[in-house]
Amino acid sequence: MLRACVIDFGNGWDRHLPLIEFSYNNSYHTSIKAAPFEALYGRKCRSVVCWAEKSYVNVRRKPLEFQVGDKVMLKVSPWKGVIRFGKRGKLNPRYIGPFKVLAKVGIVAYRLELPQQLSRVHSTFHVSNLKKYLSDEPLAIPLDEIHIDDKLHFVEEPGEIMDRKVKQLKQSRIPIIKV
After folding, report:
1. Choice between 177 and 113, residue whose per-residue pLDDT is larger
2. Chain center to CA of 135
3. Looking at the keywords, is Metal-binding present (predicted)?
4. pLDDT for the residue 39
């Protein structure tokens, strides 16, 4: 490990020695079935860097809160359950809505007023799945254009298959479908 660090850091390897030592002492070793620090002291090592990062994150984090009557956007999952024909779903909308907040349920959950198209979806959502609606018309996506199942996953179906080809490689064949 030391040799690799000397090669990576060159002449300044000695300045990085405390980080190398920290990394080694907190890495899992199969021979002792624990990290050396944990085996010696019986607890995990807490780093000063870790605490500094945590406090920095906590200072910058602001809690999301909505009032009854606010409009919010609802996060949907474009990566799961999507039938993709060559696309990765990058252009699919991440949020749908806006929806009106009906009530605050507990500390971090909100009940929304959902339209008839989403009647199979439970109307209570965690705050992490919501985003404040800013009165911006391009942001609002009508539900008529997209199909969402009861788990808030996109369901895409091809409109028409225009052409089919089979690409022949050395070891395999890849079907290509133009939709």
Report:
1. 113
2. 25
3. no
4. 85
What residue spans define the domains of the chain? 2-60, 70-179
Phi, psi dihedrals of residue 81, rounded to the nearest 5°: 75, 20
52-91: pLDDT as tens digits = 555 555 655 667 889 999 999 888 765 444 444 344 556 6
- Assess contact for 134 and 70: CB atoms under 8 A: no
SS (H, E, C) the chain: CHHHHHHHHHHHHHHHHHHHHHHHHCCCECCCCECHHHHHHCCCCCCHHHHHHHHHHHHHCCCCCCCCCCEEEEECECCCCCCCCCCCCCCCCCEEEEEEEEEEECCCEEEEECCHHHCCCCCEEEHHHEEECCCCHHHCECCCCCCECCCCEECCCCCCCCEEEEEECCCCEEEEEEC
Which conformational region is residue 97 in: left (phi greater than 0), alpha (psi within -120 to 50 degrees), or beta? left
CA-CA-CA-CA torsion for 107, 129, 136, 71, nearest 10 degrees?
-40
142-155 per-position pLDDT tens digit: 666 667 777 777 66
